[in-house]
Write a structure and sequence with these properties.
- 33% of the residues lie in helices and 23% in strands.
- It contains 5 helices and 8 strands, in the order αββββαββαββαα.
- The strands form 2 sheets. The protein has a 4-stranded antiparallel sheet. A 4-stranded antiparallel sheet has the order 2-7-4-5, with no helix packed on it.
- Helix 4 crosses helix 5.
- The longest helix has 25 residues.
Length: 159
């Protein structure tokens, strides 16, 4: 089982009722999982609330705990004629990966579709986590890389 939600043909999630963070890091102790919680912020957004804008300096990883979020790669007025300009992500999915990893301005905008709860891991918090709990930080980055790879493969297959 994985930290983030993605299809893995070799491993299927079997415990859908487990908390979001629990399935992924099953080899870690409760104390280590608690320490991960101390590095993330829990944020709630009302329907229609802007989470991040294109061009914004926001080196953060967003994990959707509940609700859904519309991700757009173009400004809204241009997106109306382009079906591939936006996508809706749901529980367990992640966004902000590029800005989180490279520290550059956001290439996407994100807006809550309905009442949404997110976990936010800032890049600076990952640095602190890596210094205090390196095994946990490595596991998180490994799972993030797997998640990103699965999304890229799905995009390649769709083209």
């Amino acid at each position: 089982m994985k930290f983030f939600t993605y299809d893995d043909p070799d491993e299927r999630l079997t415990d859908q009722a487990a908390p979001l963070l629990r399935p992924a890091l099953r080899e870690f102790s409760e104390a280590q999982l608690d320490s991960l919680h101390s590095f993330v912020a829990e944020l709630r957004f009302a329907p229609g609330a802007r989470i991040v804008s294109i061009g914004e300096d926001c080196p953060s990883l967003f994990i959707i705990v509940s609700g859904s979020v519309r991700i757009a790669a173009k400004k809204e007025e241009k997106a109306a004629n382009d079906e591939r300009a936006s996508v809706v992500l749901g529980e367990g999915e992640v966004f902000g990966i590029s800005s989180f990893l490279d520290g550059e301005a956001s290439a996407i905008s994100a807006e809550a579709c309905d009442g949404s709860e997110l976990l936010v891991l800032r890049r600076s918090s990952l640095d602190q986590l890596a210094a205090w709990q390196p095994a946990l930080a490595i596991a998180l980055l490994h799972d993030l890389a797997t998640y990103a790879s699965r999304r890229l493969r799905a995009l390649d297959a769709a083209c």
